[in-house]
C-alpha cells in the first residue's frame, strides 16, 4: 500500500511528494545512538541464538516431544519474529542512518508488533492452563493436554489476535497524511504514526485501547485465576516436599509471566506520564520490550528446567 505525502513548504503550499516515513530515533540524544547500538546488538544476538538453540533442542530431543515443550517452542517462535521485526531496522538506523521506511513496510511492522505481542500474552495464558491441569488434575492431564490441544490452541491464538489486531494498521493506513512524515520513534507504533495525520484519530486510538486491553486483560485474568487454583491446590498438599515440587513445575513459567507483565506495565505507565519524563524514555522501553523477554525467556527455561538443560548439553556434545 503506497500513499503520497506532501511536505509543507514555507509558504504553506504542498510541494514534493513523499511516499515513505522517516524514523527519528531518540531525537534529543542523536549523538549517543552508536554507543546504544552495541548492547542492543548483543542482546539481539543473544535472543536469536538462545531461542534457536531451544527450538533445535526440542526438535532433536525425543524426550521433549510433549505439549508443554511445544508451547515453549511456540513462545520462542513468537519472540524471534518480534525481534526480527523491530531490532534489525533499529540497528540499521543507528549504524547506517537508514531512517526511511515505506508505507507498506511501516504498517506491516505495526500489524506484526500488535498481533504477535498479544499472541505471546495468549501463549502465556495457555501455558498457565497447562500448569493448572498438571497440578490440579494430574490424572486427567494426558487426556486433556494433548498434541491436538496444542494445535487447536495455536490456531485459536493466531486467529483471535490476528483478527483483533488487523484493524489497527488498516485504520492507520486509511488516514490522510498531508503535512509531516517524520516519526519520532524507532518503530512504527500506531500512535506515533497516526498522530502525523491531519484527520481525526479518536476512533483509531479508541480501537487500539479497547482491543489491546480486552486481549491482554482477558489473558491476565485467566492467568491469575489459573495460578489462584494452583496455589489453592498446592496448599492442600500434605506430603513432605510435594509442595516444593509442585511449585517448581510452575516457577519458570511464573517468572516469564511476571517479567512480561512488569515490562509492559512500566511501558504503559511511562506513556501515560509522558509529560513528566523525557520523550526518549518510552522509545527506549518500547525497544527493550521487544528485546529483553526474547533474550531472557529461553535462558530462564534452560537454567530452571532439568530436561531442557540436559537436551542442550546433548546438543552441544554433538557439535
From TrEMBL:
The answer to whether the entry has keyword Lipid metabolism is: no
Question: What residues form the membrane-spanning segments?
Answer: 36-57, 69-95, 101-128, 149-171, 210-234, 246-269
Could you give a single Gene Ontology term from the biological process aspect? cellular response to lipid
Alphabetic keyword roster? G-protein coupled receptor, Membrane, Olfaction, Receptor, Sensory transduction, Transducer, Transmembrane, Transmembrane helix
Q: Look up the record and report any one GO term of the cellular component aspect.
A: plasma membrane
Q: Name one Pfam family in it.
A: 7tm_4
Which GO molecular-function terms appear in the entry? G protein-coupled receptor activity; olfactory receptor activity
Q: Which residues form the G-protein coupled receptors family 1 profile domain?
A: 50-301
Superkingdom of the source?
Answer: Eukaryota
Q: How does it sit in the membrane?
A: Multi-pass membrane protein
The principal localisation class reads membrane
Spell out the subcellular localization from the entry: Membrane
Q: What does this protein do?
A: Putative odorant or sperm cell receptor.
**PANTHER family associated with the record:** OLFACTORY RECEPTOR 56A5, OLFACTORY RECEPTOR 56B1-RELATED
What is this protein called in UniProt?
Olfactory receptor 56A4
The record lists the organism as Odobenus rosmarus divergens
Amino acid at each position: 500500500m503506497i500513499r503520497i505525502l506532501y511536505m509543507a513548504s514555507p509558504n504553506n503550499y504542498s510541494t514534493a511528494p513523499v511516499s515513505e516515513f522517516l524514523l527519528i530515533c531518540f531525537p534529543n540524544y542523536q549523538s549517543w545512538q552508536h554507543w546504544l547500538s552495541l548492547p542492543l546488538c548483543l542482546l539481539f544476538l543473544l535472543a536469536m541464538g538462545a531461542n534457536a538453540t531451544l527450538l533445535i533442542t526440542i526438535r532433536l530431543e525425543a524426550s521433549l516431544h510433549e505439549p508443554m515443550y511445544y508451547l515453549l517452542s511456540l513462545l520462542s517462535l513468537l519472540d524471534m519474529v518480534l525481534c526480527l521485526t523491530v531490532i534489525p531496522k533499529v540497528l540499521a538506523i543507528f549504524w547506517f542512518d537508514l531512517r526511511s521506511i515505506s508505507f507498506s513496510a511501516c504498517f506491516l511492522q505495526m500489524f506484526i508488533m500488535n498481533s504477535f505481542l498479544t499472541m505471546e500474552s495468549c501463549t502465556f495464558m495457555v501455558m498457565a492452563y497447562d500448569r493448572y491441569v498438571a497440578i490440579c488434575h494430574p490424572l486427567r492431564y494426558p487426556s486433556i493436554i494433548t498434541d491436538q490441544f496444542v494445535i487447536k490452541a495455536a490456531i485459536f491464538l493466531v486467529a483471535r489476535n490476528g483478527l483483533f489486531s488487523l484493524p489497527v494498521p488498516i485504520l492507520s493506513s486509511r488516514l490522510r497524511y498531508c503535512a509531516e512524515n517524520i516519526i519520532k520513534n524507532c518503530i512504527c507504533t500506531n500512535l506515533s504514526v497516526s498522530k502525523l495525520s491531519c484527520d481525526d484519530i479518536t476512533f483509531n486510538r479508541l480501537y487500539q485501547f479497547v482491543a489491546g486491553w480486552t486481549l491482554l486483560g482477558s489473558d491476565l485474568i485467566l492467568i491469575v485465576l489459573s495460578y489462584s487454583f494452583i496455589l489453592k491446590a498446592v496448599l492442600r498438599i500434605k506430603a513432605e516436599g510435594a509442595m516444593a515440587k509442585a511449585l517448581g513445575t510452575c516457577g519458570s513459567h511464573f517468572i516469564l509471566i511476571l517479567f512480561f507483565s512488569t515490562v509492559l506495565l512500566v511501558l504503559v505507565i511511562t506513556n501515560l506520564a509522558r509529560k513528566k519524563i523525557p520523550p526518549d524514555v518510552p522509545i527506549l522501553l518500547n525497544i527493550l520490550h521487544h528485546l529483553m523477554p526474547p533474550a531472557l525467556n529461553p535462558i530462564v527455561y534452560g537454567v530452571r528446567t532439568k530436561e531442557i538443560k540436559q537436551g542442550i548439553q546433548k546438543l552441544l556434545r554433538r557439535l
